[in-house]
Amino acid sequence: MKYPVPEKQIILALSNGDERAFEAIYGQYFQSVYLFVQGYVKSPDLAQDICQEIFMKVWDNRERFVKVLSFRHYLFTLAKNHTLNHLRSISRSNVSIQELLRYYPLEEQTTGNSIQEKEYEKFIQRAFENLSPTAKQVFDLCREKQMTYDQVAKEMGFSRDAVKKYMVQTMKTFRSLISGPLDIHFCVLLYFSIDYILFK
């Protein structure tokens, strides 16, 4: 098959396993998908890796395309979902998130987005209900009242290490409760909350 040809024909050829059709789709869409993904993750290297994974999924799922009405819509929906799922995994990896934060604008790290901050607060409230009474009290003093571990230890009659142990366990609980795709602002807010609490 010669290219260029109508995209519907390329998609049909792709669904039948035509590697040249895949190369044509890759060449046509890679840059726009890359820019779309980079808008979420900021890091050029990370965006490149995620894009490669997205197009691998395109190839793996090629037989489905005969039933897809809009390939472009399918591709960018796939790109968004895959990117957000990747960000969810990053929120559990200090190494990966350091790479992400190298490129994430400082003003977005610190001020965030008001809608996402509200979602973050809702998550904190839901997660809070899963804590023991003592862990709730420790978390409230550390986070809401901005007290240091030493101050909380004195307030509650615990050792500093005991207070920190409660906070470490609380953060593990929060991470275990994360489900569904997370927006980049949410990941950053959660990371900085954990970073602040655990290393204060």
Automatic annotation (TrEMBL):
GO terms for molecular function: DNA binding; sigma factor activity. Residues 26-92 form the RNA polymerase sigma-70 region domain. The keyword Transmembrane helix applies. The chain crosses the membrane at residues 174-194. Keywords: Membrane, Sigma factor, Transcription, Transcription regulation, Transmembrane, Transmembrane helix. It comes from the Bacteria. Gene3D superfamilies: 1.10.1740.10, Winged helix-like DNA-binding domain superfamily/Winged helix DNA-binding domain (1.10.10.10). Residues 124-172 form the RNA polymerase sigma factor 70 region 4 type domain. The keyword Transcription regulation applies. SUPFAM superfamilies: Sigma2 domain of RNA polymerase sigma factors, Sigma3 and sigma4 domains of RNA polymerase sigma factors. One of its GO terms (biological process) is DNA-templated transcription initiation. Belongs to the sigma-70 factor family. ECF subfamily. This is RNA polymerase sigma-70 factor.
